[in-house]
Amino acid sequence: MLFNSYIFLLVFLPVVLSLWWGLARCPNLRLTSLVVGSYLFYGWWHWEYTLLLLASTVIDYMLGHLMAKRERLSDRRIFLALSLVCNLGMLGYFKYCGFLSESINGLLETLRFGTPLYVPDILLPAGISFYTFQTLSYSIDIYRGEIKPARSLMAFAAYVSMFPQLIAGPIVRYSDVELQMRNLPSIPDWPGITKGIWLFVIGMSQKILIADTVSHATSPLLTDMNALQFFGGWCALLGYTVQLYFDFAGYSNMAIGLGLFFGFQFPQNFDSPYQSSNIQMFWRRWHMTLSTFLRDYLYIPLGGNRYGKILAWRNLLVVMLLGGIWHGAGWTFVLWGLLHGCLLVGYAMIPNFIKDHTPRSLGMCLTLICVMFGWLLFRSASVAMAYEWSTAILGGHGFESNVLAILTSQMFLFPLAGILVCWFAPNAERATPQWTPAVAVCLAIVLAFCILRFDAESPFLYFQF
Amino acid sequence: MAQPVAPRICTNIFVATLFTLLLVIGLLNLCVNPYGQYGRRGLTPIVQDTRSQKTDLFNAFPAPADGLILGSSRAMKIETSYLNERTSLRFFNYGVNHGRPEDYLAILRMYQSQTGRLPKAVVLGVDIAALNDTIPADARMSSEPRLFRHIQREIPWHEEFDRYFQLFSLHQTKASFQSLARLRKRNSEDCEQLTQEEYFGPDGVIHYARRSREMERGEYDFEAALEYNQREFQALFSNFRSLSSTRLRFLREAVQLCTANDCRVYLFTTVHHPRLRELLITKTKFELRELEAIEWLHRLSQETGARFVDLGRVECFEGNTTSFVDGIHPLEPNTRKMVDCLFRFTKEPVYALQ
User: Fold this and answer.
1) How far apart are CA A421 and CA B26, in angstroms?
2) Which residue out of A287, A327, A340, A397 is catalytically annotated?
3) CB B126 within 8 A of CB B270
4) Which of A169, A195, A192, A200 shows the shortest CA–CA distance to A450?
5) What is the distance between the alpha carbons of residues A98 and A119, in angstroms, rounded to a whole number?
6) Contact with chain B for residue A353, Cβ under 8 A
């Protein structure tokens, strides 16, 4: 089910919310209603994949309890290893099996050994990368003794499957919601709910009114890469840069807003990342829950920056490479991860004197250009497409004769307006308005308009990861 | 400056405003009913309500037709007179807009329930796009009770929901306003021209009045029409992941219903203009879906004894690329060749002249 669909907003959400607050006196029943609702939400596309979600939940719940019973770290390790094998094995099979077989076949074909491996055509279960990371973080945190295991399977199932953040984050750790799960609110927190409405409407507008509109204006440019020229290439790139941000930030805002409707506070996921004046700051403000996940569960265990600069840079490269692969099974994602690793290492190499004296606006422009080049890889379906697109934006495919027509067309003006919003508009989390009747009416009108646009149903970009 | 109000009151104002807005929009679209999806009430739909029109024409047809032409708008130009020459049967063209297997089955069942038998022959044009697993049954079908009651139980329940959700869609709201604007022009010349754009003969065959006039004058913009199809079909095929098992089941049932009742079935795949085909092949998985559909239709033909001919490409029936209204609708010179090809090498049963 999509947030931007009639069935979700007009049927599913009112029913689940009514049950949640209607059953406030029966904590177990309301958790059950949330789990059933979330499984329905998830199984709306392919009900079979709810079994995968269930398996992941049961396995990690059991392993968590088994781990918690062991005092010694070495005793816990076996259960942690089991959890890692199950979660990563599942992710590996569904996400990377086809890519690996294809890549090995490609290599063997180059060496004239033919293509001996069968390439399975596996449909990626939506959100698998997100909920796998959540269950992994749960197991690792129990292993480290940082959290206690969930008190009931239903509570843990509610944490894993909670529909607002199930498909595309934010990646909520059990420690973020542990207390909230234990003390479920029995009466609605109205200030929280109004903030939730604000974030939900803003998120929906970001998705429907900005991301989809910009995509409609610029994505046709990428249908024929051979015909793509300099300005068209840049418009398409700027368009995708804007689309991806508003699409994903919109989803995150909606997810956080929905969480607040139920009385849960999820961590912030975006903090105006395109306003960052360097690449390090960008990664602290873009998909923040993934960045902190990678930092806490990968970068620091690898050694972080504790063993000198060289090893810290190596760790950065490894983390970003794996982050890239997490996003998708393809060489373009590998390159995207490597690019960001190199950018981060490169930034770390710059002397502090230069960093301190670089004007903020120059830093913002340079950072945006680097990030945009990364999005070019991210958006490309293949390395060949990325090459063609890069050639186009460097002028290798020539220049359009009607530049003025392009610069005054929506394919340039819409992304430009989007970028200006990214640069100058405050972040939705911080810009919560003073609630007055006029604000409530305005938000209702905006949401009603968004609902009218649901007819052109468009999934969120991050659903594919 | 307005004073902040208690969050609970604001939440109530928000919900009440949203509810009121949606109610107003929904009621407007329900009353105006611009696409004729919610039964026959309100204003004249701004699109052709072909299921109702064809059913009216079919009922007015003198004695039940001996043969039916089924399919989508792409089969509407197949001339009954030309088929009559080939088979001596009186045909009725029951092609309907966005006709899909559920429509074919409903029409055949309705024919059977009305006459107690099935026609002697059925010519059925299958659109590959009509086997898409992601598009629901055409909402206008459920607003034609004479057809819909024959298939209602087999249409997934949520599709009925979808029809009502569309009450809150921008395209329907826009269409409602267009419809209201047209109401104001009801007696004007514009409106007269609108109603004369396309019409059906008593045998159900379509007549492109406006387009024919423009073609005669050399003013017809074929490129614009083709471009529209290219956009529409690219979108249609880009999310076409596999052949719909439900639609294949409906199609099989339709064909089996005919062959089990001594009704000869002539199946064919409808044609795409070469330029549209080329675009779909390069941009979508059209070729793969087409191949799957053709293989399936061949198997169905072997199982049931129905005759199947692939006419998806102009070369299949030695047609010409100029006899098209747009990327998907062939004109008479092509539909005649398609009929010739469909009936070539077959030993048609000799039917008594009616």
Assistant:
1) 33
2) A327
3) yes
4) A200
5) 5
6) no
Distance CA B330, CA A465 (A): 43
Of B7, B168, B169, the CB nearest to A191: B7
ipTM topping 0.90:
no
Total residue length of chain B: 354
CA nearest to A455 within chain B? B169
A26-47: per-residue pLDDT in tens? 888 999 999 999 999 998 878 8
Please, which residues 143-202 of chain A have a Cβ atom closer than 8 Å to chain B?
Answer: 190-191, 193-194, 197
Give A11's contacts in chain B (Cβ within 8 Å).
Answer: 161
Distance from CA of B20 to the nearest CA of A (A): 10
Using CA coordinates, name the residue in chain A closest to B170.
Answer: A452
Express each pLDDT in A261-316 by its tens digit: 999 999 999 999 999 999 999 999 999 999 999 999 999 999 888 888 899 999 99
Ordered structural domains, chain B, with CATH: 52-156+195-343 (3.40.50.1110)
SS (H, E, C) A396-423: CCCCCCCHHHHHCCHHHHHHHHHHHHHH
Q: Does A453 touch chain B (CB under 8 A)?
A: yes
B8–A190 C-beta distance less than 8 A: yes
User: In whole angstroms, what is the distance from residue A447 CA to residue A344 CA?
Assistant: 39
At position B44, the amino acid (one-letter code) is T
A65 is catalytic: no
Split at pLDDT 50, 70, 90, the class of A165 is confident
Task: Please tell me which residue of chain B has the smallest CA distance to A45.
Answer: B134
Cβ of A216 under 8 Å from any chain B Cβ? no
Q: Which of B9, B15, B165 is most worth mutating to test chain A (most A CB atoms within 10 A of its CB)?
A: B165
- The closest of A45, A79, A414 to A216, measured between CA atoms, is A414
Which of chain A's residues have a Cβ under 8 Å away from the Cβ of B134?
none
Give pLDDT tens digits along chain B (354 positions).
Answer: 556 678 889 999 999 999 999 999 999 998 888 877 776 655 666 666 788 888 989 989 888 889 999 999 999 999 999 999 888 889 999 999 888 999 999 999 999 999 989 999 999 999 998 888 777 667 667 767 788 888 888 877 777 777 788 889 888 898 888 888 877 766 554 544 445 578 889 999 998 888 888 888 888 888 888 888 888 888 788 778 888 888 899 999 999 999 999 899 999 999 999 999 998 888 788 888 999 999 999 999 999 999 999 999 999 888 898 889 899 999 999 999 999 988 875 555 444 433
DSSP string across B50-96 = HHHHHHHHHHHSSS--SEEEESSGGGTT--HHHHHHHHS--EEE---
Domain limits of chain A?
6-187, 191-277+358-464
Candidates A441, A457, A463: best to mutate against B (most CBs of B within 10 A) is: A441
